[in-house]
Amino acid sequence: MPQKPARQRLNREVICAAALELAAESGSADVSMRALGEHLGVDATAVYRHFADKDDLMRAVGDRALTPATKGFATSDDPADDVRRMCTGIRKALLKNQVALLITSAGPTRNANELRITEVMLDAFLRAGMDPDAAARAYHVLIEYTVGSASLDAPLSRNAKERKATYDTWRRDYRALPADEYPAIHELVGHLYPSSDEVFSTGLSALIAQLMPA
What we know:
CATH class of the largest domain: Mainly Alpha
Radius of gyration: 22 Å
Number of domains: 2
Number of helices: 11
Shape: flat
Structural class: mainly alpha
Largest sheet: none
Strand content: under 5%
Distance between the termini: 73 Å
Order of helices and strands: HHHHHHHHHHH
CATH topology of the largest domain: Tetracycline Repressor, domain 2
């Protein structure tokens, strides 16, 4: 009789990958530990040999999705550019992995990638000459702006045609408004809803310029 293929050895990476698959299938970060065990072909209690609890597991899943933002990231002599590059990388990673966006929106993972992000940004603010209170506030402002932008843009980020069609519908609805009542909207309607990446970049640059001393 043919032998069954050897089961993959259980470790944190294997478990996280399986949890991410299940979460992606359901579109939810609420992964059942029983379903995870079945997916891995093990008793659900085996997962607890690698993670303290479900929250610990899901933080690890979310943190791994931040890897593209930190992998190979090197700081420069320009603190403002370091912050800009890091925030841009975070948003890109979260838009690519929207399950991770659901997880990280609930709070910091306190794992390796999130800690690296926090260290890079706080260090950049300190190198820019900011006092501790101002540096901490700037960090929270920019992280919340970045994650918030990803959350708003996520529903339309994966399908360019759908995004264009949605924007066209919104513009059409604005054009149908009475011009005498909404003159500013009528004047600018053709300029509304540019690229979400462009909008994010413009806002990020404005925030950095305001928060970080020249």
